[in-house]
Amino acid sequence: MAVERIYLDWNATAPLLGAAREAMLDALAMPGNPSSVHAEGRAARAIIEKARRDVATLVGAEPAHLTFTASATEAANHVLSPVYRMGKSRVAIGRLYVSAIEHPAIRAGGRFPADRVTEIPVLRSGVIDVDALAATLAGHDVAEGLALVAVMLVNNETGILQPIRDVSAIVKKFGGLLVVDAVQAVGRIPVSIGELGADFLILSAHKLGGPKGVGALVSTGETLMPEPLVRGGGQEKGHRAGTENLAAISGFGAAAWMMASDLMERNAVIAALRDRAEAGMRAATSDTVFYGEGSERVGNTSFFHLPGLKAETGQIAFDLEGIALSAGAACSSGKVGASHVLTAMGEDATTGALRLSIGPSTTEADIDRFVLTFAKIAARRKLAGKAA
Ligand code: PLP
Q: What is the value of pTM for the model shown?
């Protein structure tokens, strides 16, 4: 008999919500192009504008300030541009500053050459070193152009929250622009672009129960915007050309709408489940290391290391027992490299860590089976150690 699977890898991607699926199927049945003026076109346009309102609401933004993209990675490549436009004038951005724990989508630097990207260190706590940021920006040469700073709100591996308001105060003091990757935060903690003091937010649908392959760039206004990455037709007010992915955008909107309600209550339940998992792991072993447990973390993530167990081996062992979790971040090649996040935190990243990340449909029974499996794998590791 096949083992029933338990999915505990929501930071890699969240299962598609039923409401998103339905919205997508409805949109797939629509014949019109959203740019067409006839009734079919207008109906498709209405779907996109509704989704724009629903996604913008989730992050306290004006719908007019949201551009749909094909992924958060595309939004990052769009906004991390050395050239911005203010009306018809060109505004140069001299240098990009990114925290050392950013997702590769940001760390790659977008359209900046590598020699114009500076990394800002994080403290052992996994939180960006704001003093280092201030000192680095103090040395920024404005003659080269404005400073562009990109810092994530929630880290995808550790779940640690970053002090974006403090970061924003520093960036504003030096006249720079702030991009916040909010991919792992939306739907999990309240997010407001205005309260964060960000100029731009990057979002992805598939981390909150929407489909894969659609994201958004959100801004506070339209005065200063990055040079478009995808040029062509005038879709998305010229910020992102190409006929819109109607079904994906519709699914994104439906997921955002679902995630906006009961956010705090839902996430309190999720955090209690994560804490239950960690308490269970602690009870089963005395030496499991939980990264970032002393820092403020989002409630759905636990990033841990079990001495004597290589993360890849652990991941396979869990998989064989029917449990999907991650060895560090999911990366496109499927292979697990040393975590740049742990390295940046000054941890030994060579044996790696496992990441449990959960969501609204995770149950207590899922967590209890995870803990039992964890205890079994941990005991095997000890037996192997003794036998050696
Ligand atoms: N930023 C963070 C923090 C992420 O976790 C991810 C996805 O793993 C991305 C960006 C990229 O998102 P997308 O898959 O939509 O390109």
A: 0.96
